[in-house]
Prior knowledge:
Elements: H1 5-15, E1 19-20, E2 23-24, E3 27-28, E4 45-47, E5 51-52, H2 65-86, H3 93-106, H4 108-113, H5 115-121, H6 133-138, E6 142-143, E7 146-147, H7 149-162
Antiparallel strand pairs: 1-2, 3-4, 4-5, 6-7
Helix pairs in contact: 1-3, 2-3, 3-7
Amino acid sequence: MKISDKGINLLKQLEGCVKIGDKHIIYDDQTGKPVKPKEALPRGATIGYGHLIKAGEDFRSGISESQATELLRADIAVAECAVQNGIASALTQNQYDALVMFAYNIGIKNFTDSTVVKYVNNRNFQNRRYPTLESAWMAWNKSCGREMPGLTKRRKVEYELFTNRSVWGN
């Protein structure tokens, strides 16, 4: 399976971006604030739709929409591999899209080790801390130990998509 075009567009909405004019610019992932051109890059420096800037990447001049989408697709490919390798159950397109978005956001190791994966792979799985798939999914709403309203909203959207509730507006 591959993430659908609808899934990519929803992921773009969930990730957000920072632009000046038609150029995507570098921003601090934690705060969403743009990084000034001559300022040192903070830990978590990001560009486009959630692309964490790696050593050796230089985006100081900004990037176009097509470059941002290209980076997103490359990053999504890694999340897709995690879903394909980690999930043994048959999935609908919505479930696949939701799991790819989830893996993309929480990171591959976190996804692979998550209670969410255990629930999806085994309908009889039980966990005292997270008694349902929904509670396991919604637990990923923190950053630096603090609940983040944006992550809570994101988890709800992903979970609604996974459970086939309408997030497409149709």
